[in-house]
Amino acid sequence: MSIVVVGSVAFDNVASPSGKAENLLGGAATFFALAASYFTQVRVVGVVGDDFTDEHFEVFEKHKIDTRGIERAKGKTFRWGGHYVDNLNEAKTDFTELNVFEKFEPRIPNEYRDSKFLFLANIHPDLQALVRREMNGVRLTGGDTMNYWIQRTRPELERTLKVMNVLLINDTEVKMLASNETNLLRAARKVLAMGPQALVVKHGEYGATIFFREGSFGIGSHPFRAPALPIEEVKDPTGAGDSFAGGFMGYIASQSELNREVLKRALFYGSVMGSFAVEEFGTAGLQNLTRGEIDARFQLFRELTHLD
Amino acid sequence: MSIVVVGSVAFDNVASPSGKAENLLGGAATFFALAASYFTQVRVVGVVGDDFTDEHFEVFEKHKIDTRGIERAKGKTFRWGGHYVDNLNEAKTDFTELNVFEKFEPRIPNEYRDSKFLFLANIHPDLQALVRREMNGVRLTGGDTMNYWIQRTRPELERTLKVMNVLLINDTEVKMLASNETNLLRAARKVLAMGPQALVVKHGEYGATIFFREGSFGIGSHPFRAPALPIEEVKDPTGAGDSFAGGFMGYIASQSELNREVLKRALFYGSVMGSFAVEEFGTAGLQNLTRGEIDARFQLFRELTHLD
């Protein structure tokens, strides 16, 4: 089943201990869409400027990603520059030029409206809520957010959380969202009480944990954890979280059932896609995979943590 | 089969967000011995002062731990005080009084010499090497170390690493030992080249990873990861690493085979014992367990990360 993603499409400049690269195709919606495209049909809602060429659109088209929801506006595409020093989990921002993204008003093409899965990447919570209302026939909505919105637009974010089924954020964000509760389990419980039926907490190089609201997607409230493979060289962590979300949501959208076992396997697939993304600069690690390579790494992740 | 542990026996004062407690029975050898005692017979080599009473010895005796190698010296027992603020993985030391531990010269009772398993807790690497020489019939030696020895006694530590089969340290230590290599996989490979056949890296609340030297304990060089259970309330992280080591080594010593599957299950048991330790102040979380409770939590850890 197809999935709609709304979020940024961008150009990135990145420097890391492994080197640097400029004008990389990036943005949350881009990483998400490429990662999810190996599992299901993806439809993007976003905005780009007149510096976004056919060559860039071809990257999407090669993966059969629907770009009819990507508006071409007058001006420049969103640009971000950042670098990583020792701690590869933390980007230091060099510049952010919102450009055409500043006035982004997501518009859902009519052709997208039959999609049953929706992902609200990291944008203003009011825009997330607007898209969610437009897509009122969806079966499952996933979403992301960040410190910026937690601190500056908490009431709006709390409203939006009520219409998200699965929230995917990192350790720092979940603790901040839970009013600085430092215990992960208690923080997760607080966030689940705000609306989502499941919460995925991304731990960077240590994988991710999914917490379920009691009775959601099945019985009980035990969390579940997927590991991350220790990787030889993390070249560029940019987009790891969005690629994780793409693998997670894409796998879910490809399944007919929606239960805990599906969500658990989805957590592994998220971890797998995140690991491919960081092995190359920009989206290069996601562009030329096969489903066979993805499933082989899935098995590796399984072996990494399964006892005989 | 029995296991010998050499290391500190201490009294701790601890403060954490959950409260505080004074004069707690502690020390690396104590946590290790209690955790390992649920799997095998444990023999301790250490030193205490005249403030160490029969009541304290009874804690060991209740677990059938052999204390004939604990020397009673004139003076006070090693004392440590510390507190934890938000980051429960990091203790802030308030005071360290080495007392009788300052001149500790480990002496192995003759009755201990038939033990086939040895754990060298965190002491001066020369003392670790001395004990290892004395116990020259052992089948497997595990050991710990810390930043202090890595920075101040690297040549001595590197000599000792050559006679350790398994080194158990945390993320920060492995990176420091590998000359500030920040990539975990590459850091692990460098450390394995220094001597140990296996390296266990403890990740605090994210569990632990075991790396194997190519061809050691079986075929291949894939790492393996055990999760840690998200815990409702971490009351006192002191001794978590030593309890992990006790569960890990104790389980290994209880098995007749010595292969990767045993080491993998040992990693889970290490994680399990660490989780019990942090739920109470001092050693209280390790004192009244049953093997049934331990195996039930082992199953919980398995379910936490195993796909159907």
Description:
- The structure is a homodimer of 308-residue chains.
- Chain A has a nine-stranded mixed beta sheet, with helices on both faces.
- In chain A, helix 1 packs across helix 8, helix 6 (171-177) crosses helix 7 (184-192) and helix 9 (260-277) packs across helix 11.
- In chain A, strand 8, helix 3 (125-134) and strand 9 form a beta-alpha-beta unit.
- Helix content of chain A is 35%, strand content 23%.
- The first copy, chain A, is an alpha/beta fold.
- Chain A has helices at 28-36, 54-62, 125-134, 147-152, 154-161, 171-177, 184-192, 240-253, 260-277, 284-287, 291-305, and strands at 3-6, 10-16, 19-26, 42-48, 66-72, 78-83, 92-97, 117-120, 140-143, 166-170, 198-202, 208-212, 224-226.
- Chain A is built from eleven helices and 13 strands.
- The longest helix of chain A has 18 residues, at 260-277.
- Chain A is globular.
- The A-B interface holds A 17, 86-88, 182-186, 188, 203, 205-207, 209, 222-227, 230-234, 261, 264-265, 268, 300, 302-308 and B 17, 86-88, 182-186, 188, 203, 205-207, 209, 222-227, 230-234, 261, 264-265, 268, 300, 302-308.
